[in-house]
Amino acid sequence: MKEKIVKYKLFEAPNKLNEIISSEINKNVFKKKYNLSGEYSNDVGINIYNGVSFITFKPNLGPLIKLNVMCSNSNKDGTESSLKLKRINGITFYVQYWFSLIFTGITLSISLYQIITNGFSKIEILFLPIFGIVYFFIIRLIASSSTDNLISKIENILKAERIKYIKQ
Q1: pTM
Q2: Measured between alpha carbons, how far is 143 from 138 in angstroms, rounded to an integer?
Q3: How confident is the model at residue 57 (pLDDT cuts 50, 70, 90)?
């Protein structure tokens, strides 16, 4: 799984963006302006994810993906900073990802055994492995679109707060 990292050069002190994201995370659900939730990372930065999800599973394993936002000084004056957005896959992503692969592998082996023993008279048994492959690509598509959505939210925050930036 390829990591998605997007870098920006900001013409502003890093504290401004960090304060905006921190205040957004700490707000009540109904008072959020950008619909972001998150937590402070053990590494450097803040992990953000979408605040409201319409689909939840029990037990809740957390968000599908997170976006690590790291904003730091890039010069000694403090007038420019570098912003790095890095995708982090959550536990939910790994559970769904590996479930789809294991499900596809098991159903493919069973269907191949059935085709070998019974011949091609029961070719419809291949529908389950095809479903597993489709499920695999749907999970990847949802994770990719969630990442793009979070990146566009950060860009909208930069535009709304009138922070000049260049994508690198």
Answers
A1: 0.84
A2: 9
A3: low
